[in-house]
Amino acid sequence: MEKAEPFDPAYGNDAQKLCGVKGADVKGGVGPFGLWVLASADLQEKTAVFFRVFKDGYGKTKVLMCTDPTKSSLSPDLYKPTFAGFVDVNMSSRKISLRSLIDGSVVESFGAGGRTCILCRVYPSMAIGKDAHLHVFNNGEAETKVLRLAAWEMKKPQMNTGG
């Protein structure tokens, strides 16, 4: 956590504004790190779900969780705001969990076992179906390790077609 950026108190509790300024492509100390979901093979389209760790003026960590869809689609006329929240997590263990569920164009992410939940709808033009990829990324100076990664695709449900 030595490389965590100082938290600017001007952001107070405005996680969304902070995420808009410190998006997934803005290099940091500890983060941004997380997942690019619904990503095209060449990463022209990607939706970032990530964490960024700050230190407040008292040496305590402040963890920001963001969903950044600003590069989720090549379509120019879409509304693509960032969504964010602060995660109430004790970083002394240096571990934080992230679970993202993707259903068509919906990306629902849970940070730290569900302490923070963000739902976002995106409309990729390339990263659809079998052309959608998942990547792990770290744009921070500090090394991060993925201790466990699992991904699966659910089968289509069987519908009762009987009368």
Automatic annotation (TrEMBL):
Superkingdom of origin organism: Eukaryota
UniProt cross-references to InterPro entries, sorted A to Z: ConA-like_dom_sf, Fructan_Metab_Enzymes, Glyco_hydro_32_C
MF term (GO), any: hydrolase activity, acting on glycosyl bonds
UniProt keywords, alphabetically: Glycoprotein, Glycosidase, Hydrolase
Keyword Hydrolase: yes
Any Pfam family the entry gives: Glyco_hydro_32C
Domain Glycosyl hydrolase family 32 C-terminal: 25-153
Family annotation (SUPFAM superfamilies): Concanavalin A-like lectins/glucanases
The keyword Zinc appears for this protein: no
Protein family: Belongs to the glycosyl hydrolase 32 family.
Protein name: Cell wall invertase
Organism: Panicum miliaceum (Proso millet)
